[in-house]
Amino acid sequence: MKLVAKRLDVVEPSPTLAITAKANQLKASGLDVVGFGAGEPDFDTPTHIKEAAKKAMDQGKTKYTPVSGTVSLKEAIIKKFETENGLKYEKNQIIVGTGGKQVLYNFFMATLNPGDEVIIPAPYWVSYADIVRLAEGTPVIVATDISSGFKITAEQLEKAITPKTKVFIFNSPSNPTGAAYTRSDVEALVKVLEPKDIITVSDDIYEKIIYDGLEFVNPAMISEKMKEKTFVINGVSKAYSMTGWRIGYGAGNAEIVKNMDTMQGQSTSNPSSISQAAAEAALIGDQTPVAEMLKAFDKRRKLIVGLLREIPGVECRMPEGAFYAFPYMTGVYEMPGFKKLLAEKKETSYSKLFCDVLLDKYNVAAVPGIAFGDDKAIRLSYALGEKDIEKGVARIKQMVEDLQK
């Protein structure tokens, strides 16, 4: 008798979580490990948000809430969409979940039928394809690369659409590349999507972490017709440094939301009542901490990219958003020492081999690009202090110098 369900045969454990866990284990054993793996800000949750959670507990707000979120949090989300994005929603179009990942999971479980195709531009967040497979959908991966700024073009999108296409995933700013689409980029994609019977999922989780005055735009913001066919997913984890609070939210078609509510009601039920109170304070309260964190991220962004560009064989573009650098290591992969490692280890993934050696021999945790659909690169989160960034990149440089021999 097979103990494990067959559906799990097509799913891999999250590599980002696995690498972070291994790095933490090595740190606990006393090693000086620099961790570029975790996709979470290193700042504390702002004080006024924590105070709101304490107040909620003191007021006895520790019971079940409606499955899809409290009325007051939904009102805060509706206000956020209207004031910041120019998007109007009703309460029955809003759902709150235990993190953006659960909202995305419930969306696909509520909308996909076996064989439905989902277009996913690569490099992509590690969970997109696996969640689609769990929902019995078929991921259709469309490759982008450093030459296109890691952004899918309208021509690529048009070519990928078939009669089986049900969903297109749009993520800007992007995890893992930090690429962000301009208004004209989004308008070009909308021209392709608007006439089609396709749902666009806009993953806006890094919306507030965007640099150089670039305007944030998602497909729903382009036209009312596009808004009706777009499901927007966001959350408080990245912008407000609330990863552990586990609050995400979605907005879109009321029928989809109703069925997501059913899914959630038969699995986790409501998100934490305390976390919902904290999220409400995050959305309607003082936004100064967000600006302060963004300023620090911007400084780190310039630091890490500048240092990476000094390493032989490494090509790194400046990300427009999020807190990740996604350097191409193709020049390093051609070095004699790396070719020798390939022969010894018999590893088929270049980026995995590089990251394995980097952690085991140089005490630096990074995520292999193969996890995001691009083996040419590695992902480095710069959500850590400047001294650690300098130390970690210096170790990467040392590894590359050793591979030149």
Topology of this protein?
Blueprint: H1 15-28, E1 34-35, H2 47-58, H3 71-85, E2 94-97, H4 100-111, E3 117-122, H5 127-134, E4 138-143, H6 154-160, E5 165-171, H7 183-193, E6 199-203, H8 224-228, E7 230-235, E8 248-251, H9 254-265, H10 273-284, H11 288-308, E9 324-325, H12 330-333, H13 336-345, H14 350-362, E10 364-365, E11 367-368, E12 378-381, H15 386-403
Parallel strand pairs: 1-10, 3-4, 3-5, 5-6, 6-7
Antiparallel strand pairs: 2-8, 7-8, 9-12, 11-12
Helix pairs in contact: 2-10, 3-10, 4-5, 4-9, 11-15
GO molecular function: pyridoxal phosphate binding; transaminase activity
Cofactor: pyridoxal 5'-phosphate
GO biological process, one term: amino acid metabolic process
How far the N terminus sits from the C terminus, by CA atoms, comes to 52 Å
Largest β-sheet summary: 7 strands, mixed
- The CATH topology of the largest domain turns out to be Aspartate Aminotransferase, domain 2
What is the beta-strand fraction? 5-15%
CATH class of the largest domain: Alpha Beta
- CATH H-level name of the largest domain... which superfamily? Type I PLP-dependent aspartate aminotransferase-like (Major domain)
GO molecular function: pyridoxal phosphate binding; transaminase activity
EC number: 2.6.1.-
Enzyme class: transferase
Protein name: Aminotransferase
